[in-house]
């Protein structure tokens, strides 16, 4: 393996930071959900990189990654359903206009 | 394949070792497939129009060349020389990528098909999953094309098509899971090798074969599931705004997908390159087995292509709500029940202690699978006909508005 | 004159590094596209590019099954779901104000600091790297693990997906005929 573990962790950390920035500062609810998908993917890269470099004989790393993929699928489904339901009621998806509970 | 790699290595080109030789052989085969698959389109369009014409009691194209054989070339030339109109408000990048993506996803499916013993593009041990993933890619191309055209009707057409494609992926995936369970491996090489002798899965699991083929035909968007090219509805669906070679590429993608589906059905259910009692018995030289196997696979594939063209010539188009009802209310429950039943049968006939089951167990498994398939199919048809009869009774009573004297539908 | 007949391409060109750089470009450019794109549709397409890059990563890390599952679930299902939601909500009124909300000038340095902290923590640990090769029959082992020692997570995932399916259908159902809840 000519590539160090650090490279993988660097890419994963960069993707994670991009995802966190997107989740905090996107205006659109769907954009926030897409950034959360980026975060989950970064975490998965981390899991699989650690599995490959530290304990390749064990299944645990890939098992975690598969579980995270399944959970991401469920979360994306419910999140999109909520977005569509909110859009039907209020005709907007911008999160700063959804302020019924404010003040 | 290994023979070709050894030949390249023996040429002793500097810098070339086994890995690079393997890469070169892969590139050669990929180029052959990438050229042959769309080139076969030329023959396929001619064949389709001739067959449909004969079914409809007319002759079909016979002007362009002897027997109209050059019709495909004429179509190609027409497609190339048509004006390429791009709508002004369309999204550039997805609009241009979508037709290419459609063709790419169709051709990528040929990577895992075992054409002959030892000749396979990529020996993935998850070949079946690869097929499913490639199907998802084609759906993406349609969505991109529909949205980027900036046309309400194209978008609506794309929605309908994607809804149908995503729905029909489910019975196809369950049928593939059943085949994987019976074989014990997801690699297409192993699936073909497990169908030696008369142990073709189309004989032992006819219902699974039917479900896979029907779901596959729906996935390709052929008639009778052809909402995509329903010329009388919704203008032209998601490729309304495409003209010239981009439209041609969507057509190429559809035909190559049909080709790939025929290959997959032949490989998964009809034994691929196996000829019963001739191949894999060991008394033929390897190269002869390869050639005979390749010819056999092509014959089986041709049978399925003919059946798909037959469908197009005879069956009327389904309505979208009939389509979705058929999948959700019939195919999905039947395939799930079938998966459970086949799992039980496979577990019964493959006791954990045995490494290679004896002949009695193999034959027993064959007939048990057959019985389970026919049983589940019969039960499904019984329930569906009973539900249909009750529906008809209810409609009859509500329409006639008096108590129906006798059930008129019996 | 050095003996050229035993030199192979893999010695001269680091092939693994080239593939890694290619997939890194896909993933990071896709990630940047998700966060910084003008239109929501372009964000979704960049997300798909990023997911392809991550699938390539898994293949490079000898997790072939995971790579195909990633393609099947993420690109084949979740990306299509996101595209559907974008097309349904038809948020064409966004590009005037841009995609970043009013606090982006705080969150950008904060996430940059987060990234630097992560890099510092990662770089200061000596990870115990082992040279064992991954097993050949990974898929069988995964299957046995799902029904063996990891049975409960498997069942919980099943329940979670069923609940998400039912909940999604109920949430996004057409409610024209029912009164306001």
Quick structural overview:
The complex is a heterotrimer of chains A (103), B (410) and C (181). Chain A is mostly helical. Chain A has helices at residues 5-25, 29-54, 60-90.
Overview of this protein structure:
The complex is a heterotrimer of chains A (103), B (410) and C (181). Chain A has 103 residues and is mostly helical. Chain A has a single domain, classed as Helix Hairpins. Chain A is 76% helix and 0% strand. Chain A has helices at residues 5-25, 29-54, 60-90. Chain A starts with a helix and ends in a 13-residue tail after the last helix. The mean pLDDT of chain A is 88. By secondary structure, chain B is an all-alpha fold. Chain B has 2 domains: 1-81, no CATH class; 86-351, no CATH class. In chain B, 68% of the residues lie in helices and 1% in strands. Chain B is built from 13 helices and 2 strands. Chain B has helices spanning 2-10, 18-55, 71-81, 92-108, 127-148, 152-183, 188-193, 201-204, 206-220, 245-269, 286-314, 320-349, 359-400; strands at 114-116, 119-120. In chain B, strands 1-2 form a two-stranded antiparallel ribbon. In chain B, strand 1 (114-116) and strand 2 (119-120) form a beta hairpin. In chain B, helix 12 (320-349) runs antiparallel to helix 13. Chain B is globular, with a radius of gyration of 24 Å. In chain B, 38% of the residues are buried. With 181 residues, chain C is mainly alpha-helical. Chain C has 2 domains: 1-94, Four Helix Bundle (Hemerythrin (Met), subunit A); 140-181. The longest helix of chain C is centred in the middle third of the chain and has 26 residues, at 64-89. The radius of gyration of chain C is 23 Å and the shape is globular. The mean pLDDT of chain C is 83. Classes of the chains: A mainly alpha (103), B mainly alpha (410), C mainly alpha (181).
């Amino acid at each position: 393996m000519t590539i160090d573990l650090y490279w993988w962790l660097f890419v994963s950390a960069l993707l994670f930071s991009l995802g966190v920035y997107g989740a905090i500062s996107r205006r659109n609810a769907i954009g926030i959900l897409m950034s959360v998908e980026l975060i989950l993917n970064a975490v998965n890269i981390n899991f699989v990189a650690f599995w490959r470099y530290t304990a390749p004989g064990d299944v645990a790393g890939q098992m975690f990654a598969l579980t995270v993929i399944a959970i991401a699928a469920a979360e994306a489904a419910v999140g999109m359903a909520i977005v569509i339901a909110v859009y039907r009621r209020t005709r907007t998806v911008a999160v700063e206009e959804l302020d019924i509970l404010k003040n | 394949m290994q023979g070709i790699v050894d030949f390249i290595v023996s040429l002793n080109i500097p810098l070339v070792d086994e890995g690079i030789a393997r890469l070169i052989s892969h590139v050669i085969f990929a180029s052959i497939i990438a050229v042959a698959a769309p080139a076969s389109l030329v023959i396929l369009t001619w064949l389709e129009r001739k067959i449909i014409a004969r079914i409809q009691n007319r002759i079909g194209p016979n002007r362009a060349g002897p027997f109209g054989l050059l019709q495909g070339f004429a179509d190609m030339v027409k497609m190339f020389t048509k004006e390429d109109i791009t709508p002004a408000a369309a999204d550039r990048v997805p609009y241009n990528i979508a037709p290419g993506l459609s063709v790419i996803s169709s051709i990528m499916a040929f990577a895992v098909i075992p054409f002959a013993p030892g000749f396979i593009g990529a020996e993935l041990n998850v070949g079946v999953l690869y097929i499913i993933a490639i199907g998802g890619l084609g759906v993406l191309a349609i969505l991109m094309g529909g949205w980027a055209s900036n046309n309400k009707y194209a978008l609506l057409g794309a929605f309908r098509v994607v809804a149908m494609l995503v729905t029909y992926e489910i019975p196809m995936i369950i049928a593939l899971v059943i085949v994987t369970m019976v074989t014990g491996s997801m690699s297409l090489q192993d699936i073909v090798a497990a169908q030696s002798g008369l142990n073709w899965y189309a004989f032992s699991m006819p219902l699974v074969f039917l479900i896979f083929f029907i779901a596959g035909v729906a996935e390709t968007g052929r008639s009778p599931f052809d909402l995509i090219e329903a010329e009388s509805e919704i203008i032209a669906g998601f490729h309304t705004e495409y003209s010239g070679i981009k439209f041609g590429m969507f057509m190429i993608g559809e035909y190559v997908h049909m080709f790939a589906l025929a290959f997959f059905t032949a490989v998964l259910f009809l034994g691929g390159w196996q000829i019963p009692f001739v191949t894999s018995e060991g008394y033929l030289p390897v190269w002869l087995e390869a050639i005979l196997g390749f010819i056999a696979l092509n014959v089986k594939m041709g049978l399925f292509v003919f059946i798909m063209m037959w469908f197009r010539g005879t069956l009327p188009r389904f309505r979208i709500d009939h389509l979705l009802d058929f999948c959700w209310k019939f195919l999905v429950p039947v395939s799930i029940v079938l998966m459970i039943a086949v799992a039980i049968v496979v577990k019964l006939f493959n006791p954990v202690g045995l490494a290679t089951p004896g002949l009695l167990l193999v034959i027993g498994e064959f007939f048990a699978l057959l019985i389970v398939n026919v049983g589940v199919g019969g039960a499904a048809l019984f329930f569906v006909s009973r539900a249909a009869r009750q529906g008809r009774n209810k409609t009859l009573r509500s329409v006639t508005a008096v108590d129906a004297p006798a059930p008129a539908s019996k | 004159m050095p003996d050229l007949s035993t030199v192979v391409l893999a010695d001269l060109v680091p092939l693994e590094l080239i593939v890694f750089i290619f997939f890194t470009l896909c993933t990071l450019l896709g990630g940047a596209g998700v966060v910084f794109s003008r239109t929501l549709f372009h964000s979704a397409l960049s997300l798909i590019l990023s997911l392809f890059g991550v699938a390539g990563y898994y293949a490079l890390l000898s997790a072939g099954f995971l790579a195909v599952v990633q393609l099947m679930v993420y690109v084949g299902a979740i990306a299509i779901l996101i595209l559907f939601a974008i097309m349904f909500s038809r948020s064409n009124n966004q590009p005037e104000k841009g995609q970043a909300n009013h606090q982006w000038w705080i969150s950008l340095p904060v996430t940059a600091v987060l990234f630097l902290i992560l890099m510092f923590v990662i770089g200061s640990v000596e990870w115990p790297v082992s040279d064992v090769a991954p097993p050949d029959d990974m898929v069988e082992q995964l299957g046995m693990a799902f029904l063996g020692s990891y049975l409960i997570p498997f069942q919980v995932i099943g329940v979670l997906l069923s609940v998400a399916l039912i909940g999604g259908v109920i949430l996004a159902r057409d409610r024209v005929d029912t009164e306001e809840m």
